[in-house]
Amino acid sequence: MFKGLGGLGDMSKMMKAAQEMQGKMAQIQEDLETITVTGESGAGLVKATATAKGELTGLDIDPSIFVASEKEVVEDLILAAIKDAQSRATERAQAEMKKITEELGLPAGMNLPF
């Protein structure tokens, strides 16, 4: 008699799942702003800290590398540390997104956000 109601029930489940995913995505976006990663170069002489979203938040430079004749080396070390921090931020963000897709039972290769 109410044959079509089964489809409405499935639609309701899909809507609930979509809302749950939206909530988790909002939470992960917030988390990525507070999770920090540290990149380094020169065996730790230069360290760059960034959020998992890739925003640079700090630099720590060992004073021993401040020699005028080594200016280009210092600049290279700073750039390398920043690039390492950005790379680590990307990896961390991808790992956090992978956790969400696994929790939601989505296919492993599915990239979020859509």
Automatic annotation (TrEMBL):
Q: Which UniProt keywords apply?
A: Cytoplasm, DNA-binding
Keyword Cytoplasm applies: yes
* Chief location bin: cytoplasm
Q: Which GO terms describe its molecular function?
A: DNA binding
* Subcellular location per the Swiss-Prot or TrEMBL entry: Cytoplasm, Nucleoid
Q: How does it assemble?
A: Homodimer.
Q: Which family does it belong to?
A: Belongs to the YbaB/EbfC family.
Give the PANTHER family listed for this entry: NUCLEOID-ASSOCIATED PROTEIN YBAB (PTHR33449)
Q: Which NCBIfam families match?
A: DNA_YbaB_EbfC
* Described purpose of this protein according to its UniProt entry: Binds to DNA and alters its conformation. May be involved in regulation of gene expression, nucleoid organization and DNA protection.
Q: What is this protein called?
A: Nucleoid-associated protein MBELCI_1943
